[in-house]
Amino acid sequence: MGAFVAEVALRWSDMDAFGHVNHARTITLLEEARADLLFTEAERQGLLGMAEGMVVARVVIDYHSPLVYASKSLQVQMSVRDLKAASFIVDYTAYAQEAVATAETLMVPYDLQAGRPRRLTAEERDFLAEWQLEPAKSESHRA
């Protein structure tokens, strides 16, 4: 299917003393976008288990330009890669007129009652596979 797109509203309280959205708040905005995908969209498709336990094992973010409150919202495009039995990566590109940040989070399904990671169910894997980008076709060699 490709990228999932979420629109996240910026709040005045997201700004820091330098007049742009604070770096830590940007991570929170990406979290809100990810919740739209993993919880809201998954539930809309009848999949409830992801909202019962999913943790971030790693986050990496590259900031490309300042994000200012005047933008009012952030458009976040997300896709899934490295889909494994008990983890996957969500890739993000955040836009406010231009790309302001790219990021990735390593996600691990988690059994809250048992207090440990768990495997993805077949239904969760199918849902996540919908959001994988098509692999780039390799160039053919010329004779």
TrEMBL record:
<dbReference type="Pfam" id="PF13279">
    <property type="entry name" value="4HBT_2"/>
</dbReference>
<protein>
    <submittedName>
        <fullName>Thioesterase family protein</fullName>
    </submittedName>
</protein>
<dbReference type="InterPro" id="IPR050563">
    <property type="entry name" value="4-hydroxybenzoyl-CoA_TE"/>
</dbReference>
<dbReference type="InterPro" id="IPR029069">
    <property type="entry name" value="HotDog_dom_sf"/>
</dbReference>
